[in-house]
Amino acid sequence: MYPETTSDPIRQEALTALTAKMIEQGCPDRYAPALAASIIFQTDLDLRNAQLSRLLSWLKQDYSDVYALALKIVEKTRAEFEHRVIEG
Length: 88
Hints:
Blueprint: H1 3-6, H2 9-24, H3 32-62, H4 64-87
Helix pairs in contact: 2-3, 3-4
C-alpha cells in the first residue's frame, strides 16, 4: 500500500470503498487494493493538473508579469523532478 493514500482518513475511506467495489465487480482480491490505489492516485494527479492549469490561466489573464515568472518556476520544477527520476 502507498503511504500517501493511507495517511488521510478520507483517502483511506475512498480506497476501502473502491477496493470493495472492484472486488464486487470481479477483480481478484490480491489486485484490487493496488488497482484502487492507482485509480485514486491518477484522479489526484488530474485534479492537481487542473488546479495548476486554472491558476496559470488566471495569472496569464490578470497578472501577466507574474505569469512569466510562474512558468519559469513550473519549468524548473519539472526539470528538477525529471533529473531526480533519471538519477534515481
